[in-house]
UniProtKB/TrEMBL annotation:
Molecular-function GO term, any one: growth factor activity
Coiled coil segments of this chain: none
The protein's name in its UniProt record: Oxidative stress-induced growth inhibitor 2
Species of provenance: Engystomops pustulosus
InterPro entries, alphabetized: FAD/NAD-bd_sf, OSGIN1/2
Gene Ontology terms describing biological process: negative regulation of cell growth
Highest rank taxon of the organism: Eukaryota
Amino acid sequence: MPSAEENPLSSDPPLILPVVIIGNGPSGICLSYMLSGYRPYLSPEALHPNPVLHSKLEEARHLSIPEQDLEYLSEGLEGRSSNPVAVLFDTLLHPNADIGYEYPSVLEWKLEEEHYIPHIVLGKGPPGGAWHDMEGSILTLSLGDWMELPGLKFKDWAMGKRRNVKSDRATPAEVASYYKHYVKLKGIKRNFIDNTYIDSVTRPYREPDNPADGPCEETCIDKESGSVLKKNWEIRGYRKAVDGSHQLFTLFAENVVLATGTFDAPARLEVHGENLPYVSHSIAEFEEAVGKGSLSGVVDPVLIVGAGLTAADAVLCALNNNIPVIHTFRRRCNDPNLIFKQLPKKLYPEYHKVYHMMCTQVSSAASNLYPPYTSYPEHVVLSFKPDKKCVLQSTSGLKKVVKISMALVLIGSHPNLFFLKEQGQSLGHHPDQPITCKGNPVEVDPYTYESCKEPNLFALGPLVGDNFIRFLKGGALAIRRCLELRQKKTRHRIVESGSEDGVS
């Protein structure tokens, strides 16, 4: 297979690649690392603190982890992911991390180039994906160690960059730089093609030569229409050149991996007035307005909608710049599912400060004065008015109109799978609903990460509910194992076929 430097996008006729990965964030990078021949083994001196798991690992110490039974190894493990292989791999990389221990990884990585599986990774920007678009000064949710990818410790890389390590947590700018350097240091940059935009991913139809014969091995039947589909995926898109021109391309792939993450489409309230110019769905736009001084000296508060960490970041940004805040969210303050309840206070003091304000500085219906921060728990936005007034409603039905200078709707984001049929909706656990990372992720086999609805289509990371980077690595491990096993079966069939024909 030609390397990325040889530009397989311009091949004529179009290439048929074993694997095409769509998305070059940490999910795509980690999978490329493993497909490039890097394989994890149990380290010779390793002793896992979980005695049952360690006993299982000892049974096949001579085998790499992808060669072992992942379902067997995952059995009985618990963690902050609903995907068993994600929990397994995190347990191997960060033993007992969720209970505060810093045990070293029990794995060692070996580059075995004979196990390379040809692939390319397509991304809009440089490797690192959406991390290059995030605010560079805000601390990330996770510890720096949890943001790292296999084979390169974040702390070691940061020390090499002479970073003044004041916190175990990193900034998005540092994480983005780490990912960009990772692909160079690991020698996998040849697999990455930047500035690529996907228009469509389809499995082309064809009419069978003889319908009575049924499909051959190169085709399969579409369950809905009964038509014959080619097994290979067709990927169409364009690459943006330096001069701004678009270079169209068509690729064919035996397997497609969706690694697009979840930052493409901000979630919306879908209320009247949400498209008014003072309503924003991006914390970056708010930070830009603050930086330009557009909100300095304002009397009317900024309305922040949402109870997640991005909303908390916006609250902190506003208060640090002496901008009053009205903070409204649907949940009650003691809701056990609030993200703040999952964060240790010592590691995340600024978020717990916001959470404390959310619980204590609750609005009084009788008050018309705006303190620096006012909380409206269990409230929803009914509408935005052209005169910068917003109508809120409590769960009891009580309405309140507030005058604001700007509104920030920060209630999460959804993956944008526009390039798939019906935006990939049929791939979810609930085919009648859009794909969302929490409520309706892509339904995959838990041990291969292959779509339950489309053969040879895989997904990992936030698309399957693994929003923390420490857990998406398990998806890469499962996909690597699945593709490796299929590759072996294909070779076995070829050898058997050759033997029958008398070919040595």
